[in-house]
Amino acid sequence: MADEIPLFRKYPKLRSIPWVSVINSPTPIHKMEQTSKELNHKAIWVKRDDLTHDIYGGNKPRKYEFVFANILKKNKKRILTQGAIGTNHGLATTVHAKRFGLETHLYLLEQKLSQTVIENLLCHHYFGAKLNLMKNKNHRKLAIKTKLFFDRKAYFVTTGASSPLGTLGFVNAAFELKDQIDDKTISEPDRLFVTVGSLATCAGLVLGLELAQVKTQIVGIGVTDPSWSSKKATIELASKALEIMRKEDPSIPDVSNELEKRLVVDHSYFGGQYGVPTDEALEAIEIAKKDKLKLEYVYTGKTLSGLIDYIRKEKISKNEVVVFWNSKSSADLTDFANEVKHQDLPRKFHKFFEDSTQIS
Ligand SMILES: Cc1ncc(COP(=O)(O)O)c(C=O)c1O
């Protein structure tokens, strides 16, 4: 099958797992010429997952290929999901779910305001999300539980779509990278830097690269609280994804005990608080601009700052082939956001637009 995804080509028995096409793939991988020069490093590469989709790319749509397929199979009509008001996951869900006739209900908590947060909030509305502002996590839990109880067509998608099924999207991404190694687009990377937030991106890559038997070590840069985005939790999620795979195809090796050796999770670049910039992330964003990459400080800027620091401190040798996994959509949403007046949003959200000094 010409359009078959790399994961199903490798393990044909997994075709029994529901899957729908969401992304443009394979995403390009190329050298960051200017960044490599600036850091005097032989080969820093970037995997362009910012380009997974023209309207809203980034890492989330890869997870939806499995998560949405499961929702459609269950004949559900509404997705309930959660995040902060500027959630990338919530926006990506809203944009992509709509294409499958699914409605998105977002249960949102306040966060520090920035231009991106404000733009995402307007876009949630533009793409048709039903918005609910929650006082705190308990309030949110209760609201979602109640909705699920009364609405049998509603389905809850976990934070960041980081379920074991969502993780399969990144196991597939690892096999996509393996294809790019095999067709000599890139030589086998020594190390890959990726953001760790709600875990599935890193968990899927660790599992996929282990199964694909490439030598690449993964450095996961934690950007959420270390108790949440831990190495242990990442490995546990990868192991659950492996269980799903082995249920369909028991000949897939049980590599769960091998995963630990391949992964480092480092929170040194987190800066102590989710969503707050560090000087190093801001510097990384400027460096990446020279390679025409648009990063931000919550996820990808912090991750690239980790890569830069490892190189500067010679934690990795000059000749290593290093990959930076660019997980944030680079699509420009300004035109969509400009279509929305903040007064069109539910009343509770108006306060975020009323004092511009709060927006950094
Ligand atoms: C742009 C971006 N990159 C990376 C991540 C981290 O991915 P994951 O949540 O799968 O750990 C997130 C979300 O947390 C994100 O929004």
What does this structure look like?
This protein is an alpha/beta fold and 360 residues long. It folds into two domains: 7-55 and 163-325, Rossmann fold (3-Layer(aba) Sandwich), CATH 3.40.50.1100; 60-161, Rossmann fold, CATH 3.40.50. Helix content is 41%, strand content 14%. It has 14 helices and ten strands. It has helices at residues 6-10, 33-38, 60-73, 88-99, 115-126, 137-150, 164-182, 200-211, 231-248, 259-262, 279-289, 300-312, 334-338, 351-354; strands spanning 29-31, 43-47, 78-84, 103-109, 130-133, 154-156, 191-196, 217-222, 263-266, 321-325. It has a six-stranded mixed sheet. Helix 5 links the parallel strand 4 and strand 5. Helix 7 crosses helix 8 and helix 11 packs across helix 12. The chain binds pyridoxal-5'-phosphate. Residues 58-59, 88, 160, 162, 195-202, 299, 327-328 line the site of pyridoxal-5'-phosphate. The site of pyridoxal-5'-phosphate has 16 residues, from strand 7 and helix 8.
CATH domain topology of the largest domain: Rossmann fold
Unreliably modeled segments: none
Ligands in the model, by name, code or SMILES, are: pyridoxal-5'-phosphate
Structural class: alpha/beta
Written as H for each helix and E for each strand, in order along the chain, the element string is HEHEHEHEHEHEHEHEHHEHHEHH
- Read across the widest sheet, the strand sequence of neighbours is 1-2-10-7-8-9
Largest sheet: 6 strands, mixed
Tally of helical segments: 14
Question: What's the total count of β strands?
Answer: 10
- % residues in beta strands: 5-15%
Domains (count): 2
Distance between the first and last residues' Cα: 49 Å
Q: Rg from C-alpha positions?
A: 20 Å
Backbone shape:
globular
As a percent range, the share of helical residues equals 40-55%
Q: What is the top-level CATH class of the largest domain? A: Alpha Beta
- State mean pLDDT (0 to 100 scale): 96
The name of the CATH architecture of the largest domain is 3-Layer(aba) Sandwich
